[in-house]
Amino acid sequence: MIRTPLRPLARILQARQKGENPDRIERENIRLRHEEMRDKMRQRAESRLLFVGVFFVLAFTMVGARMTVLASSEAVEPRASTSGANIVAQRSDIVDRNGRVLATNLITNSLYAQPHLMIEPKRAAKELVAIFPDLNLERLNKDFSGSRKFLWIKKKLSPEQMQAVHDIGDPGLLFGPREMRLYPNGKLAAHVLGGASFGREGVHSAEVIGTAGVEKAFDNYLRDPAMDGAPLRLSLDMTIQAASRQVLEGGMKLMNAKGATSILMDVHTGEVISMISLPDFDPNTRPNGLIKGDPSDSPLFNRAVQGVYELGSTFKIFAAAQALDIGLVNPNTMINTKGPMQKGRFRIRDFHNYGPQLSVTDIIVKSSNIGTARMALDIGAKRQKEFLKSLGFFDSTPVELVEANGAKPLLPKKWADIHTMTVSYGHGMAASPLHLAAAYSTMVNGGTLVKPTLLKQQTVEKGPRVISERTSAQARTMLREVVKRGTASFARVPGYEVGGKTGTADKPKPKGGYYKDKVIATFASAFPMSDPKYVLIVTLDEPSENSGKKPRRTAGWTAVPVAAEMIRRTAPLLGLRPELDRGELSKVVNTASE
């Protein structure tokens, strides 16, 4: 900075030559300098005043805008902020084949506490226990008086419970919005749906994840935001499911059974229209699994898929169909049934003495173990194994349930001749009722393989051929005869041409051997047999029909009446019109011209 001197030498000399006073020059320069300084200070002060003015205008504008927002918005309780990424809680609905909701989402609230904000923790704990009796007062008092800054109290609240907690009035009790899974039909289809629980959790949301059934099998699909909320459509029909469950539950009680299961399947698509396992549970309040004991005693156990049983004489139709298909026999071929049949140290007997021989059809109708075993020996172990494998009896069912993977059939370790014989009539090999449903569908639909599915199918795709159409027609005729004049006579449902095969197998003991008074009773049926559309499997665990002098445990007395009532109730709901049995057309008399 260059400063002008107050007494410049040149001007002083010039003033002295003219006789002027040099001091006037100094005073004039001082005056000019002071004026310059005043101008700069004035300019600086004006700039500062402008800045302060603008600042206050902006500040008052922001305060006014915030007050306007607060005045126009709905009053809500302040909530503690959360850190981290938001949890995506949205989950798609699950619906039946007709669009009825089986599983959906419900917006509710969770309850948590911040003890350091609580005013009266002991009073709050006491009132919380009064609202939620399952809470422990001593534990709450300990948590509220400790060093914890955050504490979950309840993950799900009803509106009434939320209001009761709100009335406590303690600022340390806070609510967080929560999306939960709701199953509006309760126990209906519980084993198929499985259930859901919470995964990652935060104050403002929680991740809903599948824990069992289709909820777990399709967990990625149901949580995928790209699906844009599109529901998962199952093959189940809830009207059929409700009617079937009512009949099966009543039949289970009437027959004094420990448990029961039923499967209704479309013979062409493999769609499972109804699947029931009793006892069952409510997926809204899914219970814990058993820690010890028999897993099948748990209501979580899905007998239709996880239950691996010896299914008895229901297997006989497979031996007969294979023998027919490879040309060993025809329906009228006579087979030696004289007994007992000796094989090494083993003896095979029939329930009744059926005489020295029976036709192949009558072996199925009368359920002869000896006749079936002789056909199996002629077929041979190798061909028998290949045939049963082609029907899916060597692998877990491909149905869309996580529980199905662990339900692989139990097969003989060494497939000797004795195993060939016993497997032919359903002993020495165990499979699930769902395996049986798929195999019977293959038997009656014309001979093409069926794979069970819980998803609604838009098109029908035929599987590989297992037996010829001719063999399938012969098998249908035999199964129809079983109902007409055989062990399943109680399955006659007028107008629906029911055919099927009974199976009663002694229940194995945990440590080897078989119980004498405990059985698995199964009836595998199809209808209408002139043009099969559905297969129905009914299995009862330890049934006993006690109306007579002695308990009757065979499938003909236990599982068959239950299946017949189920068909009688559900066939009209399936859109099947009752028709006159083709065998009775000859009895119709035309009286119009008389």
TrEMBL record:
Compartments, record wording? Membrane
Q: Which UniProt keywords apply?
A: Carboxypeptidase, Cell cycle, Cell division, Hydrolase, Membrane, Protease, Transmembrane, Transmembrane helix
For this chain, one GO molecular function annotation is: penicillin binding
Q: Which Gene3D superfamilies match?
A: 3.30.450.330, DD-peptidase/beta-lactamase superfamily, Penicillin-binding protein 2a (Domain 2)
Quick check: keyword Hydrolase in the entry? yes
Entry's Gene Ontology BP terms? cell division; cell wall organization
* CC annotations in GO: plasma membrane
Domain Penicillin-binding protein transpeptidase spans what residues? 262-550
InterPro entries from the entry?
Answer: Beta-lactam/transpept, Beta-lactam/transpept-like, PBP_dimer, PBP_dimer_sf, PCN-bd_Tpept
Q: Transmembrane segments in this chain: where? A: 49-69
Name the domain of life.
Bacteria
Q: Where is the Penicillin-binding protein dimerisation domain?
A: 87-223
Q: What is this protein called?
A: Cell division protein FtsI (Penicillin-binding protein 3)
